[in-house]
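My current task is to audit a protein record that another person submitted. Thanks in advance; the entry in question is below:
***
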Amino acid sequence: MPELRIDPLSGHRTIVAGERSRRPGGEPTCAAPEAIDPERDPFAEGHEDRTPPELHAVRNAGTLPDSPGWSVRVVPNLYPALSPAAPRDEESSPGEARPELFSSMPATGAHEVIINGPQSVLSLAELPVEQVVAAVEVWRERMRAHEGSAYLQLIVNERREAGASLPHTHAQLYALDFVPAAVARERERASAYTTRTMGQSLLGDLVAEEVRRRERIVAIDEEAVLLAPYASRLPFQLMLAPRSPRARFHDDGPTGAALLHDGLCRLARHLGSSPPLNLWVRTAPLGAEDFCWRIDVLPRLTHLAGLELSTDVNLNIVAPEHAAELLRKA
């Protein structure tokens, strides 16, 4: 029977209907992508002149900025969604006469690109695990550089089907001067749980219960737990959470990068190639303490259709228990 499930972290509703994957054309699919042409890759080593000047890089000793010899490199986004805040005397007033109907303001903040490695590959799964560990550490370093922002959103889009305009594996960091509504709802649910349970962590307790039950666990190491969330929105969705709850991803402590790489490799092995996917780090908004960071991975194997777009209710045709079982075997 189809089942309506509610995500304990966000309150988001998903209908889990595994039988729908058996309908004609209903199977999740993943076509192998074309390889990157290194000569046309602006993020490849040796093409540093094709990007804006770097903001940060992990480099071999003696190499110069904006030259070869790097392992992870950070540059401003060439087409930023956010701009640095203008001085107050230069700020423009909204042009609409009805602000209660047409409200706008400058989109201020920072928008950076973190090139995860010099290799011309499409996915984090195609990098050596040591390279992924180094890239994730730079994610944290750049988050620390903007830790005064209201919210820090680190994302990875892999393949054009998931929104990547350039195929070379890279992350993007948005330093926002506001807390998005979805994050604010999670903050409120986490805080209410901590108050209700006299100090417990919502995500910490959730992970402990998932480990006890084992039915949605994919893998565990000394740093983190990898699982298929109870109310997964999409087939083969994954969540990585630390073994010990910690509010901010960029604070000192384990990152779970090796287990993240393991999970992405499991997806690629089971599906036949690395799928289009969106990955993001959920971390505590500025000032929030009753929170725990996590990494969400959403493979884009099915299309969002009318139900999802009209109601914000997802329809998942692969039960997370079945997805976890398949990925454990991968």
User: Anything to note?
Assistant: The mean pLDDT is 94.
